[in-house]
Amino acid sequence: MNVMKKIGFIFCLISVFFLWLGTTSCTQKSLNYYNLRGEVHGTYYSITYGAYTNCVNTESLDSVFHTFDMSLSTFVPSSVISRVNTNDTTVVLDSFFVKVFEKGQYVSQQTNGAFDMTVAPLVNCWGFGFKKSENVTPELIDSLKQCIGYQKVKIVEGRVVKENPNIMLDAAAIAKGYSCDVVAGYLKSLGISNYMVEIGGEIVTLGMNSKGTDWNIGITLPTDTNSIDRPDVQTVVSLTDCGLATSGNYRQFYYKDGKRYSHTINPATGYPVEHNLLSSSVVASDCMTADAFATAFMVMGLDSAFAYASAHSDMAAYFIYSDENNQLQVKYTESFEKYLKGTSSPKK
């Protein structure tokens, strides 16, 4: 009798196990993928996520974006960063601002100032910022450079302290990446563990896509004629649980007196960069870090950027540049190889 009871008990356990296995399998098959698109931060966003129901509240998502802009948008006069720039002593720093500022200072230190949030006056001067461009002269550049330098600003007891009151901050080169991280955090809070968040070309991924594989992301060809709506792809990478950011000079630029001026400003010289590096793509554990380093690499140039990225195992980098014959070439760190799914010519 005891033996029969044991056999019955074991049989029940086996039955429960297979019932659970079948239920789990059905649940996985019922996972649906949804896509949200819209405008934010002066650009576009696209969010794809897997869930059992369409559980993302767009009003809550808009609220997240609004809160973010009220912290870090220089185009919103009442934002935290705008009030810091106007030396408003009553401004209270929020967590968004503090986190971006601290990450920015870290990347500035790591890259010897190639990334520098205090570059705002120069960005404005050259017509790429939140104010109208000025008639640029060497004298004006020299004057503005007195307000440039990440070492000249810090946070002390919850307040931004500047060496010069004319110092202004610009978070454009890091904020989109962090916005992706923030939205990813919002999705996680809803219990979503499969998603791809893209804002203005910066991306965060987690889990799997609708085909049950890592997320396939295209790195665009850095040409003036490339369409934002239907971009030509240079290569495709396969990602999950990380951030990807790309910085380049092939979209934001203008010609004046026959000369091309790119939007990437070298904080050390005060002038737009002039070298053969066309775009830098960085994979890191979070998109904010990837965004900041991608910008810094565009300032540093190919050789210095490649040397830095190769020496740091916590990131991977992919560079597109023009050679002496004005032909596109690519170069990527060894750590980037595992992400590559397919490349158009040329190769490493």
Jot down its keywords.
348 residues; alpha+beta; eight-stranded antiparallel β-sheet; three-stranded antiparallel β-sheet; 25% strand; globular; disordered N terminus
Q: How would you describe what is shown here?
A:
With 348 residues, the chain is of the alpha+beta class. It has 9 helices and 15 strands. It has an 8-stranded antiparallel sheet, with helices on one face. Strands 7-8-15 form a 3-stranded antiparallel sheet, with no helix packed on it. It has a two-stranded antiparallel sheet with strand order 3-4. The termini are far apart. The model is unreliable at 1-29, 252-261 and 343-348 (pLDDT under 50).
- Stretches where pLDDT falls below 50 for ≥5 residues? 1-29, 252-261, 343-348
What portion of residues belong to β-strands?
25-35%
* Broad shape: globular
Profile the largest sheet. 8 strands, antiparallel
> How do the SSEs run, as a string of H and E?
HEEHHHHHEEHEEEEEEEEHHEEE
Round the mean pLDDT to the nearest integer and report it.
85
Span of the ends, CA to CA: 72 Å
Strand tally: 15
Multimeric status of the protein: single chain
Strand order of the largest sheet: 1-2-5-6-9-12-13-14
Helix content: 25-40%
Question: What is the radius of gyration?
Answer: 24 Å
